[in-house]
Structure formats: structure tokens, C-alpha cells
Amino acid sequence: MKTQSIVASLSGQSQNSKAGFSLVEVVLAVGIMAMGVVTILGLLPHGMEMSRKTANEQAETRIVDQLVGEIQSADWSTMGGLVNGGSADTVTYFFDDQGLKLIDGLSSAAQTMVYAAQARFADANEVTDGMLMPGKDGKNVANKNLRRITIEVAVTQNPDFDFANPPAAVPVKRYTQLVAKMRK
User: Fold this and answer.
1) φ, ψ dihedrals at 111, nearest 5°
2) pLDDT single digits (tens) 30-72
3) Beta pairing class for 91-95 and 87-88
4) 122-140 burial string, b = 16+ CB within 10 Å, else e?
5) For the whole model, what pTM was predicted?
6) Rounded distance, CA 36 to CA 29, Å?
7) Of 140 and 31, which is predicted with more confidence?
8) Phi-psi category of 50—alpha, beta or left, where left has phi over 0 and alpha has psi -120 to 50?
């Protein structure tokens, strides 16, 4: 026993010392870790907002693609309801949170409206004349096989949403697409 205490005292260790961390070391480690956690928690709201914006943009893109596809594939004389008796009309559609068109006749409990979209001609004169394009000598020439469609999309759950006078809190995104006559 005496030999162990002599060896311990020669090596600079005492029998009473125990391995571990001091209170100062623990407090510093906890403080550094708390700063890291607070910094990460501060980034969460920004990340959630960016995630929401990205989801809205994806759904809006899906809505525009779907509507343009339907109008493109519809009969040229009606264009999916945009042409009504030879004059321009406006058609309103409703979509769920994924940008999928809501089906008429299903109960509202089965479907939840998140987006409203409105399709119309960019220029009502294009219904009969076609889209004006630059021609020779600076004169515009009507192309009867092209029409411009404006699609407006709003994030709203109001089926009576007024696209002409939207509230300031609800932004309306507008997209203009060219639709070409594909068949005779």
C-alpha cells in the first residue's frame, strides 16, 4: 500500500483526485450548445416560410400547366368554355392544396379548396381575329391559329373571389400563355 502512494505522489496524482469535468467546463459546454440550438431555432421560421412559398409556386405551376393543356386540347371554337357564342368569356376553376382540380358534385368535406384560378383571353378581339403579330412594313397581321390566354391564380378559400379587385393580403399571380390551333 505504501508503495502505491509513493508511486502516486511521485507521478503527481493523489489518491483523492477523481477523473471528471469541473463546473466551469460544464457551464461553458452547455452555453456553447445553447447558442447553437438558439441559432438553429431562429432559422426554422425562415425555412418554413420558404417551404410554404415553394409549395405554392409548384401548385400554381401545376394549375397553369393543367389549364393550358385543357384549353389546348379543347375544341378551337369553344376553347373549353372561353369562347361563348363568338364572344370572350371568363372561366373560374377551383383547386386543392396540391394544385389538382376539384371535381364538381363531390361533397365539400371530401375536397378542400385552396386555390382559385381564372382563365380569359388576353385580348377579347382575338376570339374572332386571332392574335396580332408584327408583319412586314410595321403593320400588325392577325394570326387566326394563335390566341393568348391569361390565367390568374390566387391562394384563397373564397369561391366568390374577385380577381378584378383582390384584397391586398391575397396576391394574384398572372400568367400569359400562347395557345395554338393544333387541328383543323
Assistant:
1) -130, 140
2) 999 999 999 999 899 999 999 999 999 999 999 999 999 998 8
3) unpaired
4) beeebbeebbbeeeeeeee
5) 0.73
6) 11
7) 31
8) alpha
Residue 65 CB-density burial (10 A; 0-12 exposed, 13-18 middle, 19+ buried): middle
Question: The C-alpha cell of 67 is what?
Answer: 389549364
For residues 68 and 149, the answer to whether their CB atoms sit within 8 Å is yes
CB of 66 closer than 8 Å to CB of 99: yes
Half-sphere exposure of 84 (CA within 13 A, CB side): 8
Q: Which amino acid is at 22?
A: S
| Integer Cα distance of 133 and 135 in angstroms | 6
Q: Count Cβ atoms below 10 Å from residue 157 Cβ, excluding itself.
A: 11
Looking up cell 380577381, which residue turns up?
Answer: 163
| DSSP E strand stretches across the chain | 83-84, 87-88, 91-95, 115-121, 131-134, 140-143, 146-155, 172-180
Task: Measure the CA–CA gap between 34 and 152, rounded to whole angstroms.
Answer: 46
Grid coordinates standing for 110?
A: 371530401
Residues in the chain: 184
Query: Grid cell 364572344 — which residue?
Result: 87
Q: Which residue matches cell numbers 366568390? A: 160
